[in-house]
Design a protein that fits this description.
Blueprint (H helix, E strand, L loop, with lengths): L3 E7 L2 E10 L3 H11 L7 E12 L1 H16 L3 E5 L3 H9 L8 E2 L2 H7 L17 E5 L3 H13 L3 E5 L2 H11 L3 E4 L7 H10 L4 E4 L9 H17 L1
Parallel strand pairs: 2-3, 3-4, 4-5, 6-7, 6-8, 8-9
Antiparallel strand pairs: 1-2
Helix pairs in contact: 2-5, 2-8, 3-8, 6-7
């Protein structure tokens, strides 16, 4: 079932009520367009997620990117009425603390008129350096937010050539390569040869479309195993 959206402007706040799925592709694009419609009028947005039944890695990454874009414009994107699936996904990926969340729409709207508490940063459980490379900005946003919340020092790039430069300058422990950077076998092989001391972790071709919660937990566990090896 495709994502459906119902928007309502209440004062200076736009509430977008989402139903069904938030996934990479058309659904994410339509959500961006919905927010773009109001960007000239306000920088205060709420996503009401009570009826969201599924969110994949690309979809969560897109919301993280929207959050960063709106906050850079001195606005905010709050979440409210989280469905059990969304609640579980944010908790399992440790990303709930990245957002300002509320139980009800009215609470989220009222929070814009007062001073809300700042989002607590993740504890620095580890400062191991990681680089993430993929052609998808949404997937990179998801990986960056997920891994930074786990305490890692994360660098991202859309291009293997830049990833090779990062490997030489930053000397990361692990390089995470998404499906978009594996499309050219020759370029990927050259990158691997440029990083003999860096462990390479390959993401599956459908990683961006997998359930964001389990995918994040599995990725973090794989990284921890590589770092212990």
């Amino acid at each position: 079932m495709k994502l459906t959206r119902r928007s309502q402007k209440i004062g200076e706040v736009v509430v977008i009520r989402c139903e069904a799925r938030i996934v990479a592709g058309e659904e994410v694009h339509s959500l961006r367009l919905e927010i773009d419609k109001f960007q000239l009028e306000t920088k205060k947005f709420i996503l009401q997620l009570a009826d969201v039944a599924y969110i994949d890695s690309g979809g969560l990454g897109a919301i993280v990117r929207l959050l960063a874009t709106i906050r850079s414009a001195r606005g905010d994107l709050k979440l409210c009425q989280l469905s059990p699936i969304v609640q579980q996904t944010l908790q399992s990926t440790n990303l709930k603390g990245l957002f300002h969340t509320n139980g009800a729409e009215q609470e989220a709207i009222a929070a814009f008129s007062g001073r809300h508490p700042s989002v607590a940063p993740a504890s620095a459980a580890s400062r191991s350096k990681l680089i993430c490379s993929d052609s998808s900005s949404d997937l990179l946003a998801y990986l960056s937010a997920l891994l930074k919340r786990c305490g890692y020092e994360v660098y991202t790039t859309k291009f293997l050539l830049d990833a090779a430069i990062l490997v030489k300058t930053m000397r990361p422990r692990v390089a995470i390569c998404g499906p978009g950077t594996q499309s050219s076998a020759a370029a990927f092989e050259k990158f691997c040869h440029s990083a003999p001391e860096t462990k390479i972790l390959l993401l599956s071709s459908d990683f961006h479309a997998t359930d964001a919660g389990p995918a994040g937990l599995d990725l973090v566990e794989k990284i921890r195993s590589l770092l212990k090896a």
